[in-house]
Structure formats: structure tokens, C-alpha cells
Amino acid sequence: MTGLPRVVATDLDGTLLRSDGKVSDRTRQVLADLDAAGVEVVFVTARPPRWLDHLADTVGGHGRVICIGGACVLDLATGETLETCGFDDDAVRAVVTGIRTALPHAALAFERPDGVAFDPAYPKREPALDPGLWSVPVEETLGARGPVSKILALDPARIPPPGILLDPPEDIRLAQEEFFTAVRAAVGEYAHLAYSGAVGLAELMPPGVDKAAALARWCTRLGVDAADVWAFGDMPNDLPMLTWAGRGIAVANAHADVLACADAVVGHHDADGVAEELATLLARGLDRA
After folding, report:
1. What percent of the chain has pLDDT over 90?
2. What are the DSSP calls for 145-194, one per residue?
3. What pLDDT does residue 131 have?
């Protein structure tokens, strides 16, 4: 075939997945068709590994996902972590100290490829997890486990009830921006904030770790240039990946900053916008074969 990218990289929530968090039958079929055509589809997501198991049958023959915002490459078929990036413990302590000082009511969580730890005050929104994960302040888990890949910070007093609002009301948006500004000032050069759409949640990544950097490393292993990559996304944490790829594409429901920077805009994620665009691409490739 001609005219096909060698790699398709796509965000999950708000992009490939529908609002119920599921992959539609239409999208499943298009992903399988791409795999059969020799196009590697790579999921690139802020989700941690524990939120990916149900997608194992959608990743094609390679079975790999870039997760935790670019901090981990996971083989879903085997559960093996193929690559991981993280903070050094001194940087984590600096981030925690900065947030505890500037925002004493904020609750923190540490994401690692092998699991998560929460402050006791962090809302218990994952009831299936071991209650012991909320037993001590997160900094007390340093040294006992592997490096921290992502630090989550939220202020329970500033966020709405459980749930993700991708289009929050103006008063919530302004409060969120105030919180994000305070977090950025508190962490300084030790971390950068990657916004994936969760209201009131500051997702802090190690310097130099993002979706684009992880995708670029993976494509180098495959011998694929950026020009041969199509990337799809919806939120500001997708922007580095969309601008790195040869073609960066937003879904219709994307954040305004993403819509402004994208090379093209496809249908809404609830209308299988990514799948429909890729099906059209495949049809054109077949016509030219």
C-alpha cells in the first residue's frame, strides 16, 4: 500500500474512547484493519497500567501502550514494563515540600508503573484498590518502592463531586486555573504540569517526560521518522505529541488550544471520529495499492 502512515498514535479518553470509556465495535474493526495492513497503532495515554487491562484485545499484534503520560511503555499482552521514566527521590521530596508549604490542604498521590499510593486525605475514587494504599502520607513510600512516574495533586475543597468534567463551568475553570498556577509556582523546575482534562487535578511529570518524548523514542526503535506518524488527541497534554508527529489531528470535542494547533480536525469522539478518519485513510491506501 501507499499513502499510509507507518505508525498511528492516539490518545484514549476523549479521543479514541467514547464517553463511557469503551471502544466501539466500529473502532475495534478499524484498529484490526490497520494492524492487518501493517500500520502500528500505539495508544498514548495519561492512564496508569491498572486502567488498561480491558483494552488488551484492541492493541493489535504488538500489544504495547505508552502510558502514565509518557513515563511508561507497557506490553499489555504480558504485563511487562518495557520502559520507565521517573523522578529521582530528591526531586519528589522537593515537589512534595513545595506543595505542602504552598497548598497545605492539597492531597497527593504517587503513580508508579507497579501501582499507586495516596495521601490519607485523597478521595477514595477507586474502591477496588487496597485500602492500605491510603494509609500514610505519600512521601513515606519513598525508598520502599520504585521511582515515582507521576505526582497527582488536588485540593478536595476546590473540585466538584467525583467525575470528570471536560467542559467545566466558568467558576470552576477559574478556580482550577488558580490552583494550577499555585502548583506550578510551588514545584518550580522539579516538575511540569500536564493537563489531561480532569477538573481540579494537577498531573505533574518529571522534566523532559511527556507523550511526545516517549513516542519519539518508541518510533526510533521501530526506525520510523516523525513524518511517517499520525497522532490524534484532545487535550493540552497531547499537544507535544501532535506537534511532533508528521500529522497532528484533533477530535471535534478537543480543547480550544488543541483545535487551534492541529493540522486537521475529525469527528467527535462519541461519533468514532478517529476510526472514521482512519477507515477513509485505509480505503484510499487500498485504492492506490
Report:
1. 76
2. SS---EEEEE-TTTS-SSS--SS--HHHHHHHHHHHHHHHHHHGGG-EE-
3. 95
